[in-house]
């Protein structure tokens, strides 16, 4: 028997058995407390001066700069990627001039 085979069916009230013979049990982990702690650490690392709106504006400015001054072929590829939904439309569907 392979370790990748599904567990054998168990009778009523019995745990399912792994092909190797060991019993399978449900195992649940609640990560809520860990997630709250992780978020607190992230916000602490960002510091009190972090401005999410300004960060988003900076990302948009960087994206505009990245897609500015495209040659004809690059603009065609950009337009194809926007049409395919790979990139979000910007500036009326054209890359920044």
Compact overview of the structure:
By secondary structure, the chain is mainly alpha-helical. It is built from 3 helices and no strands. Helices cover 43% and strands 0% of the residues.
Layout of helices and strands, plus pairs?
Blueprint: H1 32-46, H2 52-66, H3 72-83
Principal-axis shape equals: elongated
Q: What structural class is derived from the secondary structure elements?
A: mainly alpha
**Percent helix range:** 40-55%
Rg from Cα: 26 Å
Q: H/E series, N to C?
A: HHH
Mean pLDDT: 81
Q: CA-to-CA gap between the ends?
A: 63 Å
**Can you tell me the residue ranges where pLDDT is under 50 for at least 5 consecutive residues?**
93-97
The fraction of residues in strands falls at: under 5%
In words, what does this structure look like?
The chain has three helices and no strands. The chain has 97 residues and is mainly α. The radius of gyration is 26 Å and the shape is elongated. Mean pLDDT is 81; it is low at 93-97.
List descriptors:
mainly alpha
């Amino acid at each position: 028997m392979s370790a990748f085979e599904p567990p054998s069916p168990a009778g009523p009230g019995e745990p399912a058995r792994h092909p190797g013979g060991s019993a399978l049990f449900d195992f649940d982990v609640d990560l809520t407390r860990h997630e709250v702690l992780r978020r607190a650490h992230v916000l602490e690392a960002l510091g009190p001066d972090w401005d999410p709106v300004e960060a988003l504006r900076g990302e948009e400015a960087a994206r505009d700069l990245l897609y500015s001054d495209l040659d004809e072929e690059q603009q065609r590829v950009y337009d194809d990627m926007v049409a395919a939904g790979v990139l979000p439309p910007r500036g009326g569907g054209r890359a920044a001039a």
